[in-house]
Amino acid sequence: MDWTFLIFTLVKIAVVFAVVMTMVAYAVLVERKVSAFIQDRVGPNRAAPFFARYIPFLGPRLVRWGIFQPVADALKAILKEDYTPAHVRKVYFWIAPAIAMVPALLTLAVIPFGSQIGSQKMVIADLDVGILYTFGIVSLGVYGIVLAGYAANSKYPFLGGIRSSAQMISYEISMGLSVIPVFLLVGSLNLSDVIGNQSGSLLNWHVVKQPLAFFIFLIAAFAETNRLPFDLPEAETELVGGYHTEYSSMKFALFFLGEYAAMISVSAMMVTLFLGGWTLPFLGLDQPAATIGMGLVHILIFLMKLCFLLLIIIWVRWMLPRFRYDQLMDLGWRRFIPVALANIILTAAVLAFVRS
Amino acid sequence: MTDLLFIVFAGLALLCGFLTVANPFTRSPVASALFLVLTMVWLSGLFVLLHAFFIAAVQILVYAGAVMVLFLFVIMMLDLREEERRQWNRFGVAAGLIAVAGLLGITVLTVVRSGISGETEATLEGTTPLLGTALFTQYLLPFEIVSVVLLVAMVGVILLSKRELK
User: Fold this and answer.
1) How far apart are CA A212 and CA A178, in angstroms?
2) What is the pLDDT of residues A44-54, one digit of tens each?
3) Where does residue B140 rank: exposed (0-12), middle (13-18), buried (19+ CB within 10 A)?
4) How many Cβ atoms from other residues are within 10 Å of residue A82's Cβ?
5) Angular region, A277: left φ>0, alpha ψ -120 to 50, beta rest
6) Which residues of B touch A129 (CB under 8 A)?
7) What are the CA-CA distances from residue A319 to residues A38, A260, A271, B79 (Å)?
8) DSSP SS3 for A199
9) DSSP assignment letter at A178
10) How far apart are CA A23 and CA A35, in angstroms?
11) Which of A114, A31, A151, A147 is nearest to A288 (CA)?
12) Measured between alpha carbons, how far is B73 from B68 in angstroms, rounded to an integer?
């Protein structure tokens, strides 16, 4: 066992975890601010620690932007009474929130979030089967929700759990099929190779080469993360709160964090697969960094693309109404799967024609 | 390191496999299904130790992620109390033991006859293109036959689930 490898990997894991958790906290704030903007409200503008008023000029503005709101939310989630209803199945009730949270974080292990700093590649695990690993882990995400629905031992959560398992399995298929054309183009399952394949010009980005695949992947991502317009597992108006109806305090917060972490990891996948990862096609930003500064710039580019996609996901939530369940299933099975299959055949045929 | 991990993964796989069929704490089918999921996860760990990364990922993706979710989906729809009340059935135990002994016999016999020693290195070092090439050239016919079998099963399920054909 190589000690430097072990230490650098641990450092990378710690940093990625910290950054993702901060992003999750502030994604919630952005969500509330964006929704307020769309609905012509103000949004969170009150949470203020005692020292805020002593900061000249910036203090009141930070309060008005709600910068301290995530801290207050986190404290509330931790300090609230953790109530376990008498009728729940205790073991499942306790492990379900953890299972909901973990897969979203594990997915990030294979995402290359930068080129390199020094001789260290900016990816936690550079697997040759990268994308299969991500799909494998994403497919485990459904257990948290299903178990939460089952553990609650009451009707609405159960319906939510059943809905989510059907929905997530259906959209996993279209998601998996939609990325196959991308890998036909690349010729490798390694995510670093996928990024290398997109360098050079904006026209090399897979979102330009495979717009249909990107579109299907994006829609499937909404369904996989249980976000509006496909948030049927927790549809408030029909199911109270769906699978997390019986949860309170930190356990509820874990589902919440899991949802946002899943949003981040699915956006990271989209950035890597379709938007060129950490590259930009000018100023030589598409080559692995030679200096530490350039390495940091690459990470910054990746984060900016990630935030852009997160903003789209949040924006869509407040613009579109919820689908009906049969519409959701119809869209997944009768529209996306045939279209994705046609896309695979078309891409394969074109590639065979071009290369022969 | 690899030997230690092998013992850990194999031990956990055996333990979870045992808890799937004979859990002393609960007879809930949901618990059995979840332990089967864990068994799959440890098995994929064993595949990783053999450098078969593709198989390991597919094991998680297909079995733990899709097949077992559907199992769980169906189990949760059933009336579990009846299942938990059910008594041991002598015929069932005997048939189960015979089936397991038969499977074990076939597996052991196959391994012994194939003449594999414990030192054999993996021939297809896990790279996906090599595996794909092997499947579509050397093993094309078995591969296609398996695909057709799956297709027949799918058509059969659709036929069975549609009570009235229009």
Assistant:
1) 8
2) 888 777 777 77
3) exposed
4) 13
5) left
6) 53-54, 56-57, 128
7) 8, 18, 23, 41
8) coil
9) H
10) 18
11) A114
12) 8
SS3 A120: strand
Tokens of B86: 């059910």
Q: What is the DSSP letter of A310?
A: H
Domain ranges of chain A: 88-355
For residue A145, list chain B residues with Cβ-Cβ distance below 8 A. none
Q: How far apart are CA A207 and CA A215, in angstroms?
A: 9
Q: What gap in Å lies between CA B44 and CA B51, rounded to an integer?
A: 11
- Please give the Cα distance from A54 to A181 (Å, whole number): 57
Closest CA of chain B from A170, distance in Å: 10
The continuous run of DSSP H or E covering A85 comes out as none
User: pTM score > 0.90 for this model?
Assistant: no
d(CA A23, CA A227): 17
Residue B120, pLDDT above cutoff 60: no
CA distance linking residue A107 with residue A61, whole number of Å: 36
pLDDT in the model for residue A319: 87
| CA A151 centroid distance within chain | 25
The residues, any chain, with a CB within 8 Å of residue A7's CB and separated by 6 or more, are: none
Per residue in A258-280, pLDDT (tens digit) is 888 888 988 988 888 888 878 77
pLDDT digits (tens, 9 = 90+) for A297-307: 888 888 898 99
The Cα–Cα gap between A60 and A216 comes to 43
CATH topology of domain B2-126: Four Helix Bundle (Hemerythrin (Met), subunit A) (1.20.120)
Distance from CA of A239 to the nearest CA of B (A): 18
pLDDT-derived band of residue B122, with 50, 70 and 90 as boundaries? Answer: low
Q: For chain B, what are the domain ranges?
A: 2-126, 127-166
Residue B125 has pLDDT above 90, yes or no: no
Go through chain A and tell me how many residues it has: 356
B53 interfacial to chain A (CB closer than 8 Å): yes
Q: B57 near A133, Cβ under 8 Å?
A: yes
Q: For residue B142, what are the contacts with CB-CB under 8 A and spacing of at least 6?
A: none
Nearest CB among A92, A142, A189 relative to B128 is that of A189
> Would you tell me which residues 176-215 of chain A have a C-beta closer than 8 angstroms to some C-beta of chain B?
187-189
B 102-161 residues inside an 8 A Cβ radius of A: 126-129
3 state DSSP class of A71: helix
What pLDDT, on a 0 to 100 scale, did the predictor assign at position A346? 92
In this structure, the dihedral spanned by the alpha carbons of residues A175, A138, A228 and A183, taken in order and rounded to 10 degrees, is -30
Q: Which positions 94-153 of A are in contact with B (Cβ < 8 Å)?
A: 127-129, 132-133, 135-140, 142-143, 146-147, 150
